[in-house]
Amino acid sequence: MFQGQIDLDTAIPVEATAIPDVLFERGLYWASGRSGVVNLVAAHKWFNLAALKGRTDAIAMRREVAAMMSEAEIATAQREARAWMTAH
Question: Could you tell me which of 77, 11, 25 has the C-alpha nearest to residue 53?
């Protein structure tokens, strides 16, 4: 059981700090093939979302992934990112 004190005046919601990191990690997951499959469309989507949420290093990763993708794949990744933003 937690027995410390929480300073509510300086507390930051988890969403405000964790979401860009989680989105970036998802991009790494798909770009690296940790699942056994490299999915550049998914990697681009998650790096794009991380960049939109403030992870500046995601911009370079998204650019690196995009260099290996066709225009159609990039368009698909962008549509998926927009759909995710609309849903969340």
Answer: 25
Q: Tell me which residue has tokens 């962008």.
A: 78
Q: Does residue 59 contact residue 75 with C-beta atoms inside 8 Å?
A: no
Domain chopping of the chain, boundaries: 14-87
3-state secondary structure at position 40:
helix
In terms of Cβ atoms closer than 10 Å to its own Cβ (0-12, 13-18, 19+), residue 61 is buried
Write down the pTM of the prediction. Answer: 0.79
8 Å CB contact between 34 and 2: no
Q: Could you report the per-residue pLDDT of 42-81, keeping only the tens digit for each?
A: 999 999 999 999 999 999 999 999 999 999 999 999 999 9
User: Residue 27's closest CA among 3, 54, 2, 51?
Assistant: 51
Contact 62, 30 (CB under 8 A): no
